[in-house]
Amino acid sequence: QVQLVESGGGLVQAGGSLRLSCAASGRTLSGYTMGWFRQAPGKEREFVAFVRFTGGRTNYGELVDSVKDRFTISSDNAKNTMWLQMNSLKSEDTAVYYCAATRRYSGARYPNMYDYWGQGTQVTVSS
Asked: Which listed residue, 40, 48, 70, 105, has the most CB atoms within 10 A of its CB?
């Protein structure tokens, strides 16, 4: 069992920055893929980024194309934590952001491939 806790959301003006954290407990994340998803009111949950915790010195991560020039994903094996640094925020980034974990290797961009979810953290960007 993996427990996930997100933090770092809040209200920020357009152009500002936020750093989201997702801390995992219950077991080491080596071999897990952790993802960031977001869901705006009335919209489906959408992929933002994922990190594969390889157990080695470097984890592998990807971001959705729409945020690659503004968001950065990072992780720390020892802390069982990943972060999403969000810069140059826009009103369309407003959503509840969720982190999730799965042992599956493929399909990391699809929410139905994940087995564990955090409670979500609200990000609101005012224009």
From this structure: 48
